[in-house]
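Researcher: Structure for this, please.
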Amino acid sequence: MRLPDDSETPFQINIVPMIDAIFAILAFFIISTLYLTRSEGLPVNLPTAITGESQVQDRIITVTIQANGAIFLNQEPIELSQLEAGVESLVTADSPFLVILNADENVSHGRVVSVMDRLRLVEGIRLAIATQ
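Model: Predicted structure, token format:
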């Protein structure tokens, strides 16, 4: 019995599955990095602003005002009368701190102003208002 001569075809590397796997991994990393935005405060509906700028600083204190008027200092509930002392306990004299005010867009203007007024009494801080 004679076997037909098989012409030797050269070996080939099929890279299409490898490209598919690489694109799947790339898509995973792109989508996962979209969820890595850093939010220091509690979730509130921030107002939008066209001229908002990103503030980068190592020493950040976050004050959050929720829609019902509740105030939080670094995610801990605090009363307005205790806010100044609470921030002063976190501030050290060696470098300035940035206090970011996360106020819900439905909070009354008077409540935001009263919190800002208390924060301005603290020495050694800079005040910023968070927007989207």
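Researcher: Any notable elements?
Model: The chain has a mean pLDDT of 80. The beta strands are 60-65, 71-73, 76-78, 97-103, 125-129.
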